[in-house]
């Protein structure tokens, strides 16, 4: 038999948020991340992670908002974590336009990298008939100067008490292939 310690780490995490709600403007910033220090002499070493590090400003009078920094977004054709800018304009109670530009990150452990970049535009309509929300999007993503993803798609959500359905269709026009088609409900 042998004695071996396979894991010996020190975990440090932070999740800090600041908010200011004004008569016209709302401000929010957030920092969320951590560091794992490997205490083994023959271990992998330390590793940091940043899940969020952004500032967000919204003008309720004009219906515009923007967020800059490391953020995550699910929807509008954006896939997860990115470093960049997300902007939104609510033209009316049922119509919102969004735009994003940035650099995707695969995980929170990834540092900033400009190797991949994307631009996304979307429009959201709803709620329609009190239950439907429909969005369309276009995304152009490049990897090292080459086309990585050119997607168009639609997201539809149906929400009523006790019932939910979500449909997502994402099609890559450059590769002429379906990226994903998802239907979920309960």
Explain the overall architecture.
This protein has strands at residues 9-21, 25-38, 47-59, 64-75, 78-92, 95-104, 116-128, 132-143, 146-160, 163-172, 177-185. By secondary structure, it is mainly β. An eleven-stranded antiparallel β-sheet has the order 1-2-3-4-5-6-7-8-9-10-11, with no helix packed on it. The relative contact order is 0.10.
Short descriptors:
186 residues; mainly beta; eleven-stranded antiparallel beta sheet; globular
Question: Mind sketching the topology for me?
Answer:
Layout: E1 9-21, E2 25-38, E3 47-59, E4 64-75, E5 78-92, E6 95-104, E7 116-128, E8 132-143, E9 146-160, E10 163-172, E11 177-185
Antiparallel strand pairs: 1-2, 2-3, 3-4, 4-5, 5-6, 6-7, 7-8, 8-9, 9-10, 10-11
Would you summarize the structure shown here?
The chain is mainly beta and 186 residues long. The protein has strands spanning 9-21, 25-38, 47-59, 64-75, 78-92, 95-104, 116-128, 132-143, 146-160, 163-172, 177-185. The chain starts with 8 loop residues before the first strand and ends with a strand.
Mean pLDDT metric: 93
The order of strands across the largest sheet is 1-2-3-4-5-6-7-8-9-10-11
Portion of residues within helices? under 10%
Contiguous uncertain segments of 5+ residues = none
Oligomer description: single chain
- SSE topology string: EEEEEEEEEEE
How many helices in DSSP terms?
0
Number of DSSP strand runs? 11
* General form: globular
Q: Note the gap between the termini.
A: 52 Å
Beta content: over 45%
Largest sheet composition: 11 strands, antiparallel
Structural class: mainly beta
Radius of gyration: 20 Å
């Amino acid at each position: 038999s042998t004695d071996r310690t396979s894991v010996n780490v020190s975990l440090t995490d932070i999740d800090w948020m600041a908010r200011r709600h004004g008569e016209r403007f709302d401000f929010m910033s957030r920092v969320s991340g951590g560091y794992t220090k490997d205490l083994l002499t023959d271990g992998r070493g330390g590793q940091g992670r940043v899940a969020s590090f952004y500032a967000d400003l919204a003008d309720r009078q004009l219906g515009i908002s923007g967020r800059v920094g490391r953020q995550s977004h699910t929807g509008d054709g954006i896939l997860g974590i990115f470093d960049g800018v997300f902007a939104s304009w609510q033209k009316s109670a049922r119509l919102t336009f969004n735009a994003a530009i940035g650099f995707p990150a695969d995980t929170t452990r990834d540092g900033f990298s400009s190797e991949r970049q994307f631009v996304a535009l979307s429009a959201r309509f709803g709620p329609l008939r009190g239950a439907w929300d429909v969005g369309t999007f276009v995304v152009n993503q490049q990897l090292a100067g080459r086309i990585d993803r050119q997607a168009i798609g639609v997201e539809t959500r149906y929400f009523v008490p006790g019932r939910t359905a979500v449909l997502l269709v994402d099609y890559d026009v450059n590769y002429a292939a379906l990226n994903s088609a998802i239907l979920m409900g309960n």
